[in-house]
Write a structure and sequence with these properties.
630 residues; 26% helix; eight-stranded antiparallel beta sheet; alpha+beta; globular; Dipeptide-binding Protein, domain 3; five-stranded mixed beta sheet
């Protein structure tokens, strides 16, 4: 579980109303939304998000495909594998980003995000927000009309119960990212107040505002920490209408959805029914899409995008193949090395493993030239480091100079650039020199340590299609005398193994946004490295990293944020916790031509929740594919 929020400077959509909590020494502002970057685009009285069609028709059926299986309707715990669609996007886009800023399909939040703004939330379950000038607390005043799908009112007690429950029994990510909350109190049925600790991360107001609100009465008497195998009660636009564990689930739009006429909801969640079918692997899911058994597919395999979409339905326009530009930070994707394993303890070994990866060959021969090399943990943003650290960065880095690689201060970080021929002899020579410096030597064509034990490790995958990417890398590493195996498991087993850090190396995506938040602690802190189920798969535990995360989270303005983030980026890169791989700024989307769209470019690129079923298109397309599929 990862909550991706973040920020540094809390600014409110001001309505300047008095508050009963106001004091002369701590004036309180009332607002209808908040942001942690710049100024919100929308006024307090906005009618609807500007990128939606407010007159979008409701109804129609959508079929989607998911890979793997599920056995759980509670996505907030470690146990089990949660079903898709409960919270967040229906469709996960390549690179790990969700489709749009969905507020939740079954469970909703106090705030609704915008698909065209960074780190901004507008009141949804809440009607107004109150906060003092010192930011020490935030109060949410709830809409009295808010209720769950069974008619039970949604109250402040549900908000407080949700917070306490996910902290106590939910994924460790909640404990890590919400650690700055000192207490939660209710003030009547429609008011809840979060108090923050001194020196806490400034993203917390948005973080608690985007926490889904769960129904206390539904979970009463249930063990929250165990997988939920019955249809849940929610507050969102959809209810679970039917399901077969592990195979599929059908969501139906709730005709009595209490929030349908709110500015944050108009023009969204337009589908009448959404069915999600599960397939054993991605190749089967692709064939299901081509056969017309799924309506939309986000493609993350470049070979498929180049070669697998030449079936008749694409050629005659029944299936649309689109490259959609987004304007999101792309974060980091790479081969993560689990430093809890002795083989990856030494940074010199990790650098050698990284230096051996031939991206140019892979991009030319495996990816059809579609990708660029990832060069930063904050790639595609102004927080990415480059060149040498400047004076302000050095002030943050100097206290740790003795522990950090000397090269960090004297050389720009760089990755090898080959000619793409596959003959990266120079890079392998550099790798071997690093390995020898770390105490490894080639003997009888094997890389061995002082005791004569060969270096060996296993790359863990959850998708057979990634084997074509991993196996050439394995062959390159074998040229160094390293014994590397590839192990592909099903998604459920992959989740269990990675949650327990029971792997050597695996491919991971670490998403980021313009305003990094407490997710950084879940990804890279010492506390997270020791917490089963955290996102710190590499086992990063470094005093410099912990200190720089704190600087990022408490930066007072954008300039300070840039300095702190770039310094953090340098440390993570020079420690070689993973081998940077690839990324791009385009989403590959294919869909059957049965949808209407607002047609307005947005920062997120795609927000499927703003689409609708166009009855005329759907009738023609569905009739044609019923006769012959793709």
């Amino acid at each position: 579980m990862r909550i991706v929020l973040g920020g540094f400077l809390l600014l409110l959509l001001l309505t300047a109303l008095p508050s009963p909590l106001a004091r002369a020494d701590s004036p309180v502002t009332t607002a209808s939304g908040l942001t942690i970057l710049g100024t919100p685009k929308l006024a307090a009285n906005f009618k609807h998000f500007p990128y939606v069609n407010p007159d979008a028709p409701k109804g129609g059926e959508v079929r989607l495909a998911a890979v793997g299986t599920y056995d759980n309707f509670n996505p907030f715990i470690l146990r089990g594998r949660a079903v898709a669609g409960l919270v967040g996007a229906w469709v996960i886009l390549p690179g790990g980003s969700g489709s749009g800023a969905s507020i939740g399909h079954v469970w909703e939040s106090l705030l609704a995000g915008s698909s065209d703004e960074a780190a901004t939330g507008y009141c949804h379950i809440c009607k107004t927000i109150e906060t003092p000038a010192d930011g020490s607390w935030i109060a949410f005043n709830l809409r009295p009309e808010a209720h769950f799908s069974d008619g039970v009112p949604l109250t402040s007690e549900d908000v407080a119960w949700t917070f306490h429950t996910v902290i106590a029994q939910g994924s460790p990510a909640f404990r890590i990212q919400l650690a700055g909350v000192a207490s939660v109190e209710t003030d009547g049925p429609h008011r809840v107040v979060f108090h923050f600790k001194t020196g806490r991360d400034r993203t917390l107001p948005l973080l608690v505002g985007e926490l889904p609100v769960l129904p206390e009465h539904f979970f009463k008497g249930r063990d929250f920490s165990q997988p939920l195998t019955v249809a849940p009660i929610g507050s969102g636009p959809y209810k679970v209408a039917a399901f077969e564990l592990g195979r599929g689930v059908t969501f139906e739009r709730d005709p009595n959805w209490w929030a349908g006429d709110l500015p944050t909801a108009i023009g969204t969640n337009n589908f009448g029914t959404v069915r999600v079918d599960y397939y054993r692997d991605a190749s089967v899911a692709l064939e299901a899409f081509k056969a017309g058994q799924a309506d939309l597919r986000a493609e993350n395999i470049s070979k498929n995008w180049a070669q697998a979409y030449d079936f008749p339905a694409v050629k005659d326009g029944r299936v649309i193949k689109a490259d959609i530009r987004h304007h999101l930070p792309t974060g980091m994707q790479g081969w993560a090395m689990n430093t809890r394993r002795p083989v990856f303890h030494d940074p010199l070994v990790r650098k050698a493993i990284g230096w051996a990866y031939d991206f140019q060959w892979a991009n030319k021969n495996l990816f059809f030239g579609n990708y660029t090399r990832t060069l930063s943990y904050f790639d595609n943003s102004d927080l990415a480091s480059s060149g040498l650290p400047g004076p302000d960065e050095l002030k943050l880095l100097d206290p740790f100079r003795a522990e950090l690689p000397p090269e960090l201060f004297t050389e720009p970080f760089r990755l090898p650039i080959t000619d793409g021929s596959g003959h990266n002899r120079e890079e392998l020579t550099t790798s071997l020199a690093l390995l020898e410096k770390a105490g490894w030597h080639v003997r009888d064509m094997k890389l061995v340590d002082a005791q004569g034990q060969q270096m060996r490790f296993t790359i863990l995958l959850d998708d057979p299609s990634f084997e074509r990417v991993a196996l050439p890398y394995v062959q390159t590493l074998k040229h160094l005398g390293i014994a590397v195996d590839v192990r592909t498991v099903d998604p459920a087993q992959f989740q269990r193994l990675t949650e327990n850090f029971d792997f050597d190396m695996t491919m991971i995506v670490i998403p980021e946004n313009e305003i990094p938040g407490t997710a950084l602690a879940d990804d890279f802190s010492c506390a997270a490295a020791k917490e089963i189920g955290s996102s710190n798969l590499a086992g990063v535990c470094d005093p410099a990293v912990d200190a720089l995360i704190a600087k990022v989270l408490t930066a007072s303005d954008r300039a300070d944020l840039r300095v702190a983030a770039r310094a953090l980026d340098r440390v993570l890169l020079w420690r070689w916790y993973l081998v940077p791989a690839w990324g791009n700024q385009v989403f590959h989307i294919a869909y059957w031509n049965r949808f209407g769209q607002p047609g307005i470019p947005i920062r997120d690129g795609v927000d499927f929740d703003t689409w609708w079923v166009d009855s005329t298109k759907a009738q023609a397309t569905d009739a044609a594919r019923a006769k012959g599929g793709g």
